[in-house]
Amino acid sequence: xxxxxxxxxxxxxxxxxxxxxxxxxxxxxxxxxxxxxxxxxxxxxxxxxxxxxxxxxxxxxxxxxxxxxxxxxxxxxxxxxxxxxxxxxxxxxxxxxxxxxxxxxxxxxxxxxxxxxxxxxxxxxxxxxxxxxxxxxxxxxxxxxxxxxxxxxxxxxxxxxxxxxxxxxxxxxxxxxxxxxxxxxxxxxxxxxxxxxxxxxxxxxxxxxxxxxxxxxxxxxxxxxxxx
Length: 228
What we know:
Elements: H1 2-7, H2 20-27, H3 31-44, E1 47-50, E2 54-57, H4 62-73, H5 76-80, H6 82-100, H7 103-125, H8 131-153, H9 158-166, H10 168-185, H11 189-206, H12 210-227
Antiparallel strand pairs: 1-2
């Protein structure tokens, strides 16, 4: 019943909901039952309970929820499936992005490409074997992942966006593994290829050149697998 009140907007976003006592009286149950229900809604991420204050409706963050449970589903077999998943999801999202992307979408993608190029340049400067390079790798990986995530969001298909979100943690782990191998092997030539390919994704979507974009995304996955 409380979920219904959130979903239908009776309890609005960021609004403080009634106290445990008021809820117990309203639903005709004891306070312990209310407390258990509140805990479940807190775990789901739709309520936030502040000690000494009360419970508030909060925006549901699907990606945060998936990050919190990723340890339970992130397996070696799942990492092996990443390439096939990305080829299917990202290629289709790119195709839809060419049909549906707004000028604002494209501008954000351009900024992601600039950001990725800047981080890659800094990463390469650190050179091989540097502990700082390995630490910076996490920043570069997050930047790369957000670029691909935004490309998927440009499809404006919520189910495809959710599908990519469910896989973000496994994809991130895979990217980190590939990137770590680059640090260990000092294979910085891949940095130039990666920057070129990301700009290629942007330009091909902007120019509605699906075949070029598809080849880039497929080749990108394949050379990551080769390094992995």
